[in-house]
């Protein structure tokens, strides 16, 4: 199976139009266009009955004490964990494209609703936890919300855009399910997978302007 993420080449920076946060010289970060990129996939194996679409960042610091703190940096030596940015399940087997901006077009304070979306069923991404302490932004974030790594992180972040072909029509997930629930539910049902990885940073010392 093959996947193309329009505008993102393997190993190259994710364009700012797909980002939740963009670099700001004055404030370190400001809200970005937060549009989901166009995904196109082909050559799904025979027997495919649905797809899972996910995007996640495996480089998120496991300890957030120094994240986005003036005068501090997030050490490259801190253990890293997965942060899910996009979860779509029960995408019909007849689908092979998600248009740009179809699942997200702008930052929505307090998040988009989980459940049935324009394509498939939206799971809950990790902005739900990350923004929980912000009274203006706290809420349940579902569907796509793009990159916004700590602006003081010493490492470049990687973003894996994936499509998985499954042998079941539905994973039976509903409500506020997360990335761990998706991975558990699709275990043993994956016929094929495809991935494109982009990079992103808000650290001015790592940016290639």
Automatic annotation (TrEMBL):
<feature type="region of interest" description="Disordered">
    <location>
        <begin position="98"/>
        <end position="119"/>
    </location>
</feature>
<protein>
    <recommendedName>
        <fullName>Phospholipid-binding protein</fullName>
    </recommendedName>
</protein>
<dbReference type="Pfam" id="PF01161">
    <property type="entry name" value="PBP"/>
</dbReference>
<dbReference type="InterPro" id="IPR005247">
    <property type="entry name" value="YbhB_YbcL/LppC-like"/>
</dbReference>
<dbReference type="InterPro" id="IPR008914">
    <property type="entry name" value="PEBP"/>
</dbReference>
<dbReference type="InterPro" id="IPR036610">
    <property type="entry name" value="PEBP-like_sf"/>
</dbReference>
């Amino acid at each position: 199976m093959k996947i193309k993420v329009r505008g993102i080449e393997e190993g190259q920076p994710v364009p700012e139009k797909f980002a939740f946060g963009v670099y700001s010289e004055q404030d370190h970060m400001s809200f970005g266009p937060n549009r989901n990129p166009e995904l196109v996939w082909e050559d799904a194996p025979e027997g495919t009955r649905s797809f899972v679409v996910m995007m996640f960042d495996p480089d998120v610091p496991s300890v957030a004490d120094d994240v986005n703190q003036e005068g501090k940096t997030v050490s490259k030596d801190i253990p890293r964990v997965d942060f899910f940015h996009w979860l779509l399940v029960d995408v019909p087997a007849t689908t092979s494209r998600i248009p740009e901006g179809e699942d997200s077009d702008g930052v929505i304070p307090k998040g988009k609703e989980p459940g049935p979306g324009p394509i498939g069923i939206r799971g809950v991404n990790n902005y739900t936890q990350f923004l929980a302490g912000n009274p203006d932004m706290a809420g349940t974030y579902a569907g796509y919300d793009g990159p916004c790594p700590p602006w003081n992180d010493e490492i470049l972040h990687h973003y894996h855009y994936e499509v998985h072909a499954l042998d079941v029509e539905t994973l039976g997930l509903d409500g506020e399910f997360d990335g761990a629930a998706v991975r558990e539910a699709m275990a043993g049902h994956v016929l094929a997978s495809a991935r494109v990885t982009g990079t992103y940073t808000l650290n001015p010392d790592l940016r290639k302007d």
